[in-house]
Amino acid sequence: MWLDHHVRGFEALEHLNDQARMPMHFRPTGREAPQVDIGGIRSPRLAIWSVQSSTGFESAPSEGLDLYSIRIPLRGGVVRRTASREFETVVGTATILPANEIVATRFQPGSDILNCSVGGSDLRARFEQLEGERPSALRLQPSTNLEGPRLQALVHTIRQIGDHLGTPAATLTGPLLMDLLLNQILTSWPRGQAQPADGSLRAADKAVDFIEAHLAEPMTIGSVAAAAGVSLRTLQSAFRMRTGKTPLGYILDRRLENAHLELLANEGRLPVSQIAYRWGFLHMGEFARRYRERYGAPPSRTGRRSA
């Protein structure tokens, strides 16, 4: 099945959800009319497609999918959320997650993302062929830097297969290419890390709760560690394993989200600088840069749209 969709506006996005029979649901992330271009090919066992969006959007997979989903940013990035963690993926990195663990994926404005989904049963069967044993649970490291020739070769293979699928030659060579892809995923992608101890998870959860309760107040990473009852080093490690971010990165992201929501509801009553200062952004240039990277437009434009 060929994928060739060009979304321009809210109604077109709803039409994509209703008519395109995609294994996911799309939703806008703001008031700006969504613009999304999707191109590629999909079969029951393998799908490779590209997504470009100047506005950004979110997607959530359909329930019951036995797939492993890979996202590789070529420009911009995506944030993938599971029930317990969030993975921010930018150029030079990639994620692989079981579809049934993904809550939502947020495509950032101005992004160009290479996507690949392979059947879970295919990947597990290939693991058994390679290792000689059936995996009780196939765990790959959710996020990785695309460093080294083997991971670069995997990205190249995904792009080449995407170009090759659907051509007359694919009938003969498709199975061989599928073999190559499965082998490269299992031999080049880092295996999953050991799960953090329950104590570390509890400490990270306490830290998140403390941050959320004091987000609009002055705080230091030291005060967060003290509230969680751990050292700074333990906090950094546990927090990254729990959320995929550093404590500082999480605080800045959450404050930026609150500033964005306040700008949307502002209706022109307050200047952008006052809202930025309220959420701890003292340098307007840095605030505008972070805001534009996250939401695809300067904060002043958001204020004008909401006015």
UniProtKB/TrEMBL annotation:
The keyword Transcription regulation applies. InterPro entries: AraC-bd_2, AraC_XylS_family_regulators, Homeodomain-like_sf, HTH_AraC, HTH_AraC-typ_CS. GO terms for molecular function: DNA-binding transcription factor activity; sequence-specific DNA binding. PROSITE patterns: HTH_ARAC_FAMILY_1, HTH_ARAC_FAMILY_2. It comes from the Bacteria. Keywords: DNA-binding, Transcription, Transcription regulation. Pfam families: AraC_binding_2, HTH_18. Residues 205-305 form the HTH araC/xylS-type domain. PANTHER family: HTH-TYPE TRANSCRIPTIONAL ACTIVATOR RHAS-RELATED. This is AraC-like DNA-binding protein.
